[in-house]
Specification:
The N and C termini lie close together (9 Å). Strand 3, helix 4 (81-94) and strand 4 (98-102) form a beta-alpha-beta unit. It is globular, with a radius of gyration of 18 Å. It is built from 9 helices and 10 strands. The strands form 2 sheets. It has an 8-stranded parallel β-barrel with strand order 1-2-3-4-5-6-7-10, surrounded by 6 helices. A two-stranded antiparallel sheet has the order 8-9. By secondary structure, the chain is of the alpha/beta class. Helix 5 runs parallel beside helix 6 (141-151) and helix 6 (141-151) runs parallel beside helix 7 (172-179). 40% of the residues are buried. 37% of the residues lie in helices and 19% in strands. It has a single domain, classed as Divalent-metal-dependent TIM barrel enzymes (TIM Barrel), CATH 3.20.20.
């Protein structure tokens, strides 16, 4: 399995709503970090919306990644047939083999039947590509599994995020039991769940990989028998510091610490 970086490794450096750095990281900055850490995969998600870039920017990104031997994966949200078609065209332009899709958007929340119909509609667009549907808060794992199995194509699987399903009330053991056989891409996102000091509830907070509740070795062992998941990317939920500058420094430190932990667990980086 190949280990890589995501644009969501660097959410604060790229910018989140209401918190924009003076000089945000862009796709070239992400490639710089990949070179620095000697990883050969980057996944560009919604916070770097490449489908909105001009042709020249897309070409420059693809050309540099190809020169440096770095594999590109794309990510987007709003699962409509038209948007999948747009992303499939873009994937072929940049040499990406996998597109990660979050089903929902702020004003778009289709039901399982609509998702199934959309996935069937886009199947002819996926020759040579893999579409990974991310578990992202709303749908429980068994619902996602039912949708993917009903479509019944090896071109469509699951992008398994290790923390998102907490938003749907499910722990990782349940998610993995349902979705491991369908997983084509992995988001490694460590976290800690802690009871509040007043004992009236819990907080969920990101942690560097290997320092939270996520047992990465166990997770990789669960995925290995199915031989479908060939790539994994690091994502971080870095809690902010008092100002954005210190938060970005912390995020970089967490990325380095996480990769130091993760790299020995992966057999190859290229």
């Amino acid at each position: 399995m190949i280990l890589g970086l995501s644009s969501y490794t660097y959410g604060w450096a790229i910018g989140v709503p209401g918190h924009q750095p003076a000089r945000p990281m862009d796709e070239m900055g992400l490639l710089d970090r990949a070179q620095h850490y000697v990883v050969k995969l980057v996944q560009v998600g919604d916070n770097l919306p490449c489908h909105r870039w001009p042709d020249e920017r897309v070409a420059a990104f693809a050309d540099r990644a190809a020169r440096e031997g770095i594999q590109i994966q794309l990510g987007s949200s709003r699962l409509t047939a038209a948007h999948v078609a747009e992303m499939a065209t873009l994937a072929r332009r940049v040499g990406a083999k996998l597109i990660r899709f979050v089903i929902d958007a702020p004003d778009f929340h289709p039901g399982p039947a609509q998702v199934t119909a959309t996935l069937r509609e886009v199947l002819p667009l996926l020759d040579g590509l893999t579409l990974g549907i991310e578990n992202h808060d709303r749908f429980q794992a068994r619902t996602l599994r039912s949708v993917i199995e009903e479509v019944g194509s090896n071109r469509i699987g699951i992008c398994l995020d290790t923390a998102n399903s907490l938003g749907a009330g499910e722990g990782l053991a349940t998610v993995v039991a349902d979705l491991a056989p369908l997983t084509v891409n992995l988001h490694i996102k460590d976290f800690r769940i802690a009871r509040l000091p007043h004992l009236m509830g819990f907080t969920v907070e990101g942690r560097p990989a290997g320092t939270g509740s996520l047992d990465v070795r166990w997770l990789l062992d669960q995925l290995a028998p199915f031989k479908r998941c060939e790539t994994a990317v690091l994502e971080l939920w870095t809690p902010p510091e008092a100002d954005l500058e210190r938060t970005v420094v912390k995020e970089e430190a967490w990325a380095a610490q996480s990769l130091d932990f993760l790299e020995p667990l992966f057999t190859t980086k290229s």
